[in-house]
Every structure is written in C-alpha cells, then in structure tokens.
Specification:
Length: 682
C-alpha cells in the first residue's frame, strides 16, 4: 500500500464515529414510519460500518505504525487553551475500536430479536425505535472517547456514555419496584458516576495548570519534567474517575443495579462500552501512572480487593444477571490490578477477551430469560406478576430445552472460569503471571478471586441448565429464534479462540500495542502459575458440581454450609445499606435541616415573617398613622386652621358700608403722606 492510499484510509477515520450517528439520526427522523426489522437493520449496519472503518484503520497502520492525528475541526481557542477535535489513530485506539464496534454489532443484531419480544412483554411496542436510537448513541459516544486526541474530547465521550447508560438503564422507567425501581437504578448510576467525573475534571484542571495543554502527546512529552507530587495528585483524581466508570471500590455499587435495563443494554455496558472506559483511561495515561508509583500501587490494590469482594458476592446471588454483574466488577478488578502493576498489555488483553465471553454470557442470559418467559405463557400459569424469570431458583433442566443457549453459555462460563484453551484462560493467566512477579499480595487476592469465579459460574450453570425444572415456566421453555442465537454462536467462537490474540509464543497483541505504549512489560509464560490457575479453576467447578449438580429444590445448599457468611454475601456486605446510612440519610438530614430549619423556620418564619414582615408592618403602620396622619396631615390641617383663623379675623373688615371703606382709605393716605413727609424732612 503506497503513501497516498494510506492517507486516504486515514481520512476515513471520522466515519468510525459518523456511522453510528448517521444510524441514530435516520431512526430519529423516520424510524417511527419504518418496520422494526428496518430500524434494527439500520442501527446494526451503522455500527457494522464503523467496524469496517476500524478495520481500514488497522490496515493503514501497517504502513504508519506510529499512528497519525486526524483533524476533524477546531473547537476551543481561549488564551493558551487550544482544543481541536482530532482523532488519535494508533494501535491502542484501533484495537479498542475493533473490539467495541465488533462486539457492539453482534449485540445490536441480537437486540433486534430480543427487543421485539421485550417491548411487547412490557406493553409498549412503540419504544423499539427509541431503544436503537439510544443504542447507536452509546456506541458513538464510546468511539468519541476511544479516538480522542486530548483529555477534554475524551471527557465528552466519557460523559456521553454516562448519559446513555442513564437513558438505557432506566429505559423502562415506569417499571421495577413500586413503579420507580428502574428509574432509581438509572439515577443511581448517573449520580455515582458524577462523583468519578468530578475526579476526572479536577485531574484535567491540574493537567492544564501543570503542562499548559490537554493534548496527549504534549502532556506525555513534558511529564518527566513535572514533579512527583503533582503527578500523584493528577493520577489519584484520574483513579477516582476510573472507580466510577469501571465500577471499582468505592463506587462499584451502581453496576449491579444497571441490570434494570434490557439485557442487550447489560451486554453493551458490561462488555463493549462504559466500564471499559476506565481501563482505557489508565492505559492511555500510562506515562503519567508510570511516573506516579504510589498511585499505581493503589490502583493495583483497589483492583485486587474489588476482584475478590465482587466474586464473593456473586457466589450468593440468585438473579442470573446480577451474578454476571458482580462477575463483571470482579473481572474489571483483574484488569485494574493488571494496569496498576504496569501490565498494560495484560489488562487490554483481558479487556478484549472479557468483552467476548461476557457479552456472550449476558446475551445468553437474556436468551434464558426470554425462553423462561415464553414458557410461562405457554404453561398457562397466571402468576405472571409475581413470577421472576431471572431467578435461577425458578430454572433448572434447560439444557435439553434450550440446547444452543446451553452450549454457548457453557463456552462463555468456562472461558470466564479460565479453562484452557478458551480465551479467558490466556488473558487471566497473563495477569496472574504479572502479579506473581510483582506483588505476592495482589497475586493471592486475584487467585482467591479466580477460585470463587470458577465456583460461582459453575453454580450458575448447574442451577440453570442441569437437574429437573423447578417451575412450570422452565419445563415449557423454548429456544429463541436465529436472530438471537446466531450472534451467540459468533461470540462463542470469539470466546473460544480469542486467546490467539496474544498467545505466549506469538505475543501478537503485545507487539501491536508496543507501537503505542512505551511501558509494555513482557512477562514470560509461567508454567507453574498457569497450571495452578487451571487446577484452581477445575477445583472451583468440581465443588460447584458437588454442591449443585444434583440439586432438586430451590433451597441453596451453600446457605446451610456457610451460614451467616452466605447471608453477608447475599446482602452484598450491606455496602448499599452502609452508603445509605453514611451518605443518603446524612444527605436527607442535611436537606431537611436546610429546607425545614434553615429555609422554612429561620429564613421564612423568623427572617421573612418576623424580622422583615413584622418590621415592615410596624414601620408602615407608624409611617401611616404616626408620621403621615400626625405630622404631614397635622401640618396641613394646622396650616388650614391658621389661614382659617386669619381669614375669620380679616372678614370683620368687610362691613359693606362705603363710609367705612372711605374712612379706611383716608387713614391710609394720611399714614402714607406722613411717611413721605418724614422721609423728606430727614
């Protein structure tokens, strides 16, 4: 490929973002007049074309390995702040773009079949078009984030995915507990992420204050000249943003409640968009984190503790999607721990592999849910309002009734557990190998999390697919149509063979990312770590089979075995209750104090009603009665009385007799003449 052809391909880079936007615009204006098939096809094709464009960027980078900056438009120019909308096309952004667009395309296709049923089950078919408008917007925002050339443009995409998560989590906003449960879940995600966004904003202010720029290359080139203290502050605030978007301690509580959205939303958030943004932010800012070792150590510790904590909670959950939600938090912990240790390739490798098998698991869980819901209707049961199609205690025996879903779920589950040669084994093993070389504590925490991961995914598979049906709905469940199962098969292939991306002997992804990342670590394949990881995964699955393989009733055997610990895990360590006590109730108490005591009793009752109103009333009463009536009116009335008295005295001079007037004139002339004579004589 010659230079001109390469430049032409790079010129197409904005289409990565433009295609999803075009898809949502078309559906926004004419989607209501189109059939569901056309709406879904337009949305899916838009994301598919974005994937094709990313492939073309991959081809162009073969001749320009250092990457290129593609200008789109000037944006902000104020003083020394000059921000352009430019795309950073390099090996990291292209790898992320391929993953996001590829997985999102399969999720979009699946969603056509899923939402066709869901909008009817929820009683509002008219929302089908709205769903795909939000879906395309989600992908477009993620693409803006990935391809951004500076922190401010990345923040635009960062906020965009946050907005879309709010819109899609609360898509059925009038549903859920008390008719507002889903709306509350969306609000919880939005508000929790605002805390993380505050951290990102402060980090940006510090970056501009320190470097005079927000453009990545300019910041990174000057990073070594900055002090360790300011770099530590910058990275700590960036870490706060990461804990929000990537659901790490302490801001992980929003992600399990995100299950309120339709299942394709869960897959998109957990696999391709949103939660991967935090990992990408750290990797993109690896130059800064490498120069702030204290922050990097904290990143690794937070990731490892989150991985173990979330994995333990997943052990005791009964909602099929909630188990996977805590699994996502745990796997994100693996990625965060990896990038905290400086193993950036391992973190990105697991991010990509996780996108494959977690999208597969979430979409497969949606297939299970709709199969059970269909079975509920076919069984003639009337308890539709009270029956929970997501509760694994209502399932069982689906292996023979939903064969395709079972096999793809099994592949996704084994990949998550880390069974070779599936993708999850290679990506997770690379993280464990890095941890074993850099931190014994991190390695132990992640290994314990890996054991629990194998156990809870085995528990889920056995509860859902094995044994006898535990409800009439499960007994009558049916497989879903090809529009849903074909994307599952494609994702199953990726989950099975995705490890090829970075096999120990090839290191393809490592070599590719090394073109962009200077801090790439090359960890040799550790046979002992890999063998232990495999043995632990088998042990976890074996224990799950021993406990749940022959389960016949809805009671969980682990509850009897673990007792209060199981209850603690089932109640998620009561973190939500603790946050409710520490923040929500304190916030409500403060709001009550400000509203009832400060605003109403003090400002309204005392300041307004007592101090101002009564003072005003008393002053106006005095002005009206004391000053106006007594002083002003009194002065006017007294003047009138004076004039009246004078007039009454002067009136006596008006007699009506001519002789009196003549006599008055005579005396007047006499007085006047006397005055004149006196003047002349003197």
């Amino acid at each position: 490929m010659n230079g001109a052809a390469t430049r032409d391909l790079f010129a197409l880079a904005p289409l990565i973002i433009a295609f999803p936007i075009m898809g949502l615009v078309i559906n926004l204006f004419i989607g209501r007049r189109l059939s569901e098939r056309w709406v879904g096809t337009i949305a899916s094709a838009a994301v598919g074309l974005s994937f094709v464009t990313a492939l073309l960027q991959f081809a162009a980078l073969q001749n320009t390995p250092d990457g290129i900056r593609v200008m789109v438009a000037d944006w902000i120019s104020i003083g020394t702040l000059n921000i352009s909308w430019a795309l950073k096309i390099d090996s990291l952004s292209v790898a992320m773009s391929l993953m996001v667009a590829g997985v999102s395309t399969l999720i979009h296709i699946y969603a056509i079949g899923y939402m066709h049923e869901d909008v009817r089950l929820q009683g509002d078919p008219g929302r089908f078009t709205r769903f795909f408008i939000y879906f395309n917007l989600f992908v477009a925002a993620m693409m803006i984030l990935i391809t951004a050339d500076n922190y401010l443009m990345m923040f635009v995409g960062w906020e965009g995915v946050g907005l879309c998560s709010y819109l899609l989590i609360g898509f059925w906003y009038e549903k859920g507990k008390d008719g507002i449960g889903n709306a509350i879940a969306g609000k919880k995600a939005f508000i929790t992420n605002r805390i993380g966004d505050f951290g990102f904003l402060i980090a940006m202010f510090l970056i501009f204050w320190t470097f005079g720029s927000l453009q990545f290359d300019e910041v990174f080139q000057s990073a070594e000249g900055a002090g360790t203290t300011v770099l530590t502050l910058i990275t700590l605030f960036l870490l706060l943003g990461v804990t929000g978007k990537s659901a790490q301690i302490p801001l992980f509580v929003w992600l399990p409640d995100a299950m309120a959205g339709p299942t394709p939303v869960s897959a998109l958030i957990h696999a391709a968009t949103m939660v991967t943004a935090g990992i990408y932010l750290i990797v993109r800012s690896s130059v800064l984190f490498a120069l702030a070792p204290a922050t990097s150590n904290l990143v690794a510790l937070i990731g490892a503790v989150t991985a173990l904590l979330a994995a333990s909670i997943a052990v005791a959950q009964f909602d099929i999607k909630r188990v996977l939600a805590y699994s996502t938090i745990s796997q994100l912990g693996f990625m965060v721990a990896a990038v905290g240790l400086g193993a950036y390739v391992a973190g990105i490798f697991h991010l990509i592999a996780h996108a494959f098998f977690k999208a597969l698991l979430f979409l497969s869980s949606g297939s299970v849910i709709q199969g059970v819901e269909r079975g509920l209707h076919d069984s003639g049961q009337t308890n539709h309002e009270t029956f929970d199609p997501q509760d694994m205690r209502n399932m069982g025996g689906l292996r023979s009734r939903m064969k395709i879903t079972f096999w793809v779920y099994l592949i996704g589950g084994l990949a998550l557990a880390g069974i070779p040669p599936l993708a999850g084994f290679f990506s997770k093993d690379e993280i464990l190998a890095d941890a074993s070389e850099n931190s014994t504590l991190i390695y132990i925490l992640l290994t314990l999390a890996a054991i629990l991961t194998a156990f809870y995914i085995g528990r889920q598979i056995f509860m859902v697919f094995f044994g006898e049906p535990k409800s009439e709905a499960a007994a009558h469940a049916k497989e879903n149509p090809p529009i849903m199962t074909v994307p599952l098969l494609a994702l199953a292939v990726l989950a099975a063979f995705g490890g090829i991306l970075n096999l120990p002997t090839l290191q393809s992804l490592s070599k590719w990312l090394q073109l962009t990342l200077e801090q790439v670590q090359h960890t040799e394949f550790n046979v002992l770590v890999a063998l232990l990881s495999f043995v632990f995964a088998l042990a976890g699955l074996a224990v799950a089979w021993r406990v749940y393989g022959s389960q016949r009733d809805a009671a969980d055997p682990m509850r009897r075995f673990l007792g209060p610990l199981f209850d603690l895990w089932e109640n998620k360590y009561r973190v939500d209750e603790f946050y409710d006590w520490l923040f929500i109730k304190r916030y409500k108490a403060l709001a009550f104090t400000l509203a009832e005591i400060v605003d109403w009793r003090f400002l309204h009752d005392w300041v307004h009603d007592t101090l101002l109103a009564r003072t005003f009333q008393r002053s106006t009463r005095w002005l009206a009665e004391g000053f106006d009536l007594q002083v002003i009116d009194g002065a006017a009335n007294n003047l009138a009385r004076l004039i009246q008295g004078i007039a009454s005295r002067l009136r006596t001079l008006q007699t009506g007799y001519v002789r009196n007037y003549a006599l008055s004139i005579f005396f007047g002339l006499l007085i006047l003449m006397s005055y004149i004579l006196i003047q002349f004589s003197s």
